[in-house]
Structures are given as structure tokens and as C-alpha cells.
């Protein structure tokens, strides 16, 4: 009776789940289908993100296949070797072929996973000798400064964008161009993370600061994307947000030209018909004067 009651409850929950899913609109169903195909992996906007997505999907499918095989063997053992009487079944102390098989099989699985991971890692970290755009990213407690070293502003210095306590810094990038990021930290370890890049890199201070902390991407989608510090770097780590604004190559060239003429980030973005302020994140409410002061770049 108890077993029948449990089956009834399970059936009722299944029916409730089906009715709930039928209440979703088409957009929601498409969303869940797309995420199921990607096995929960978010959709990236760079060429490098596609390589990492393929590794994730392949690894997940391999794990699922192995899991199904293990579950099938467990089910077979339960069914084929269930108790059939009081007679003690034949005892097997050693099975050398089986022991060799389950020693070699995990090694082959690990070796295969390592191989595809290394190939993907090399592809993601590969760098062209002459990238189209170079961005110097300076991280400090607790904000970001983005410098375009190949430009010259009205003051004779390279164009840069830096955040404040009331303004989210916006990093403007062109699509379909190879972009090199050179990361540097003024104090502690930070981590440059744009979720849609499907990639993040620790910003480690030291003698090779800004030299070894380098990676390249090619953005393929226009839009606005939130960026964050992914390394717990201090009390106000949560304040280290920024925004990536990817635009067409022509819009990017117009933006840089406007910045070189002396326009601010806000004015240059408005000039190319882009919102002048960040749209993906907003500054947190800073109520302590000390925090406001520490959000200013060193030397100002």
C-alpha cells in the first residue's frame, strides 16, 4: 500500500511538472532548448568562447555516456545476481582480465580529456604577433582603467577611460578585429572577467606585470556586456564592475577619433549613437567617504 502511495505521488508530481511546462510561452521553450543543447554552458561572443563551449559539451557528453554505462552495469548486476535462494553463489576472488580492463579504462578516459583540454587551451591562449587593437587594462582597489596605448589624446597622452564612484567604466571594442589585452595590477591580485568571453585571467602584480598577463580575443557580437573582478581582492571587491561595449569597426574608429579630439567617453559614445552610460550595471551606493577616495586612480 505504501509503495502504491509513493507511485501515486510521483505520478502526480510528473503531471504537475508537465502542466507547468505547457504554461511556458514559446520564447521560454526556445530558451530552455538552446540551453539544453549547450548543456548549461552560456553562449559566448568570441571565437575563443566557441572552442571552450565545444570542449564543455564534449566533456559533458562523454561523462554522460560513461555514467549510462556504469548505471547499466549496476542495473545488470542487481537484476542478474539477485538472490534466488539460500544457496551461496559461486565466489570469485580474482578476475585478472577485468582488473586490467578497469585499470586501463580510467587512464584512457583521463588521457583523452587531458588531450582535448590541452588542445583547447593552446587555441584559446594563442596570440597573433600583430593584433589589430591593443588595450592596457589597469586594475586597482577598487576600479578599472582602460588605456588605448596606440592613440594620442588632446593632452598628448594615450586615450583612457577610468571609473569613478559614480560612473561605471566602459571599455569600447570593435567586432571582427583581433584585440590584445595587457593586464596590470597596481596593488593585489585581481581578475579580469567578462562572462560572455567565457574566459577570465588573473591580474597578478610583479616584475612581469602587464607582460605575462596577456590574452587575445576576437569579438563577433555587437552589444553591451557586464564585466567584473572575479578575484576576492578586498573589502569592496563587489564594486569592481565595468562594461564592454562592442561596436562595428567603423563606429569604433569614429569613437577613437572623437576621444583623440578631446571628447569624453560619454560624449564619444553619444556621437556614435551609443548610450553614454553603462546599461548592464550601475554603481553601488557608496556611503563612506573613504571608499569614494579609494575608488580614484592613484596619482589623481
Total strands: 10
The H-level CATH homologous superfamily of the largest domain, spelled out, is Cupredoxins -  blue copper proteins
> Would you tell me the structural class of the helices and strands?
alpha+beta
CATH class of the largest domain: Mainly Beta
Note poorly predicted spans.
Answer: 22-26, 287-292
Q: Helix fraction?
A: 40-55%
Number of helical regions: 7
Biggest sheet: strand arrangement = 3-2-1-5-8
Could you explain the architecture of this structure?
This protein has 300 residues and is of the alpha+beta class. It has two domains: 28-75 and 101-125, no CATH class; 134-284, Immunoglobulin-like, CATH 2.60.40. 41% of the residues lie in helices and 20% in strands. It has helices spanning 2-22, 26-37, 47-80, 96-125, 249-260, 265-271, 289-294; strands at 133-140, 143-148, 159-162, 170-174, 178-185, 190-194, 199-203, 214-218, 223-229, 241-247. The strands form two sheets. It has a five-stranded mixed β-sheet. Strands 4-10-9-6-7 form a five-stranded mixed β-sheet, with helices on one face. A hairpin with a 4-residue loop joins strand 6 and strand 7. Helix 3 (47-80) packs antiparallel against helix 4 (96-125) and helix 5 crosses helix 6 (265-271). The chain is elongated, with a radius of gyration of 27 Å. The N and C termini lie far apart (77 Å). 22% of the residues are buried.
